[in-house]
Design goal:
Elements lengths: L4 E4 L10 E4 L10 E9 L15 E4 L2 E5 L5 E4 L8 E2 L4 H13 L2
Antiparallel strand pairs: 1-2, 1-7, 2-3, 3-5, 3-6, 4-5
Length: 105
């Protein structure tokens, strides 16, 4: 598993939230869980004004997805199958959202 890998969401909300973004440090691979952020389809998200610093829009296979940083949570390793892609190229934007959530800047 690698930080910023994207996995299919196996949960009941997969239609509106098709992906989970792994944001956990690779140094903690020994844990049996990973911290993930849901990636939600923009067309399924209510038209509300959110901070782009907290909830940036990322693109996977041409689809724009909202990174729902405030809904981050731990999931068991067993639910994360094969990574579909990596968003390592978006590291600065993802890390900025996490910093904003935890530090307020």
């Amino acid at each position: 598993m690698a930080r910023f890998d994207v996995y299919a969401n196996p949960g009941s909300h997969a239609k509106t939230t098709p992906y989970l973004l792994d944001v956990q440090s690779d140094l903690l691979d020994g844990l049996d869980t990973r911290m993930v952020i849901p990636l939600r389809s923009l067309h399924a998200f209510p038209k509300v004004k959110l901070s782009h610093r907290l909830t940036p829009v990322l693109t996977i296979q041409g689809e724009e997805l909202l990174m729902e940083t405030p809904k981050m949570g731990a999931v068991p390793l067993r639910v994360l199958k094969t990574p579909l892609t990596s968003l390592a190229s978006e590291q600065a934007q993802i890390s900025a959202a996490l910093d904003f959530l935890f530090q307020g800047y």
